[in-house]
Every structure is written in C-alpha cells, then in structure tokens.
Amino acid sequence: MLFGQKQTSTKRTVGDDSCAATGRLAVSPGRLNHHLVLPHRTMAVMADAVKLPDSLPPLPEPLPVPTVDAHTHLDSVAERTGLSADDSLALAARVGIGWVIQAGDTVADSTWAEALARTHPQVVACVALHPNEVARHPERFEADFAAITALAAAGPHVRAVGETGLDYYRTPHADGQARQRDAFRRHIALARTAGLTLMIHDRDAHADVLAILDESDLPERVVMHAFSGDADFARECTARGFWLSFPGVVTYNANHHLRRALAVTPPDKLLVETDAPYLTPVPARGRPNGPYLVPHTVRYVAEQLGWDLPTACVTLRENAFAAYGGAWGTTPEPLGTVPVAQVATDSADHHG
Asked: Is residue 242 part of a domain?
C-alpha cells in the first residue's frame, strides 16, 4: 500500500539531540513523502530478509522478552534512512520490540499513522496537530482539527490524541503560544470525548502544561511523551496519575536531571520510547534513530533502576498496554516467573 502526499512537515533534523529536543523544524513546502508499506506479514520471517544499511547504527543485542517502543515516527524514519515501515518493524522485532506506537503531528502524518495501524496489528496510532504546527498555521486549524476529530473515531487501532501540548522553545512568541494553549484545550476535550489516551508534547512549558491540565476535564489516561522535566516535575505528573515516557536522551551524560526524574517515577508509570528518528540513545547518539534501537534505552533504564532485564521488558510492555488502553496485536505468551516491577515506596532507593 502506498501512502500518499503529506502536508508540510514540522519535524526537525536528526542532529538536534539536545536534552528533550522534541520540537519540529519545517521542511520544504509541498515536499512529497511517499512510503511503501506492505501488507502485514510475520515479522520474524520479514526480519531475515531486511538488510540494515552500513550507514545506520548496528542492531543491538536482542532483548530477552519482547517489549514496546512507546512513541515513534516511522514515516520520518523512512525519510531519514530509506527504511520502509515494514523494514523498521521487522528490524525492531529482530531485537525484541514487538509493538510500537506511531505518533501523528499533522493531518497528513495522522492519516498515515491511522492507515499503518489499520494494516499492521503490532502498531497503534496517535492522531493530533503538533503545537508548533498549530502556531505556524492558524489559518487551517479548524479544518485540520475536524480531520483529526474524524481520525480519532477511526477504530480501536487509534489509541491516543497526540502529540499535542505546548512547545515554547520552537514557538517563543506570545501569539503563537496563545494559539497552542487554545489548541491544547481542544485536543484534551477530544481525547476525553473519544475515550482515548492524551499524549503530551511539553517543551519549556511545564507550568502552563500542568495549569491547563489541572483546569480541564481529563481523559482517564495521560502520557508525558519524551519527558524532559526534573524530579520535582516528575512527582507533580505522577501524583496526577500520568505516565512518563523516557527517550534515548536519558542515556546522555549531561542529563542528570532526567536520571533523577527516572529514579522517582513509580515503576507502573514508566515508559520508554525512541521518538525516532530523533533523540537517539548512546551508543548511537548523533545518528538516525529507529525502533530497533530502543533496547539500548531499555537496558540503560534497567541498570539505573536496579531491575533485571526480563523484568524491565515485561514492566515496560505492561505499562504501555495500560497507558494506551489495553494490549494490541499478538497476545504475549505466558512468561512464567518473569515479574512486573512492583511499585516501591521510593524508587530513588535504586540509585540515590
């Protein structure tokens, strides 16, 4: 299946790997973004046929138990790397990433995400207008939001409204920030009405994000994508019942605040994501990211928290299923004695 032309993207370059660099940069207007996505086949079979280009990071050691990439952009991965969505999914399956959550930033991205999830059982979709998209294109917001509203009702393969929220880093001017706040409120209401998870992009806007959430009638499930706050902000979010999703930047030496936030996140509120092709973890930092690289972050998080690796994989998978409305795709096999990490009275005990 060939997915059609997308509108102007607002994604940034791969090299933007600064702490919580979750903004989007514009690309050339009218750019054609076609991606060949084949009918679903068993990923274990497909993985043997996929050759990873030498220009991309090598495959990590496979995880012992399959788990989830809680946020990715396979369309953008294709743009940056030439890997089709099926290639990315097959490579991910080869290293133990059996499920992915595909995020939308625009009507075109969200339409593509919905179609991918509809034809690939291991994928679920999120649909929304990215806050920077809202700030840059106020003239088309109403028509675009109507399209997002229709996509949110497409079926059980659409699990979230996102990524929505506030980005004051890429949108520093007051009028654009005001448009973002208004759009954020509309997306919150849509998630609530549709019974979907709310998946939030928050960059340099922690206080306003919480203020708007606190004044709103929220859906049952809220995820803070590419979490960028410190331990205090992590406590504020998890006290409200939100899930925190940590990308590869948690592995960067300078990001001590993220590791302190990780330490105080309750085990049942923790997710791991790629945000591919961005925010690539060590040891592949500075190169294009993909779902097949999330094992690096899973291993790092397990080491930081003092978890054995099978427990980390199961915990992160079950958390993702809970955060996004239940299991999807192939039901995991029983795992015998592999436990889910228990909620501790103070997760910081793991590493101070």
From this structure: yes
* pLDDT above 80 (res 252): yes
More confident residue, 172 or 4: 172
> Could you report the per-residue pLDDT of 157-210, keeping only the tens digit for each?
999 999 999 999 999 999 999 999 999 999 999 999 999 999 999 999 999 999
Rounded CA-CA distance 137/9 in Å is 12
ω into 288 cis (within 30 of 0): no
Q: How many Å apart are CA 68 and CA 314, to the nearest integer?
A: 9
Comparing 257 with 23, which gets the higher pLDDT? 257
pLDDT of residue 284: 98
Instruction: Report how many domains make up the chain.
Output: 1
Cis status of the peptide bond prior to 163, with omega within 30 of 0? yes
Cα separations (Å) of 220 from 186, 236, 269, 305?
16, 17, 14, 27
Task: Let me know if residue 215 belongs to a domain.
Answer: yes
Cα atoms in the Cβ-side hemisphere of radius 13 Å centred on 95: 23
pTM to 2 decimals?
Answer: 0.85
Category of 227 on φ-ψ map: left (φ > 0), alpha (ψ -120 to 50) or beta:
beta
Helix (H) or strand (E) holding 80: helix 74-81
Give the residue among 93, 98, 133, 100 at the shortest CA–CA distance from 116.
Answer: 100
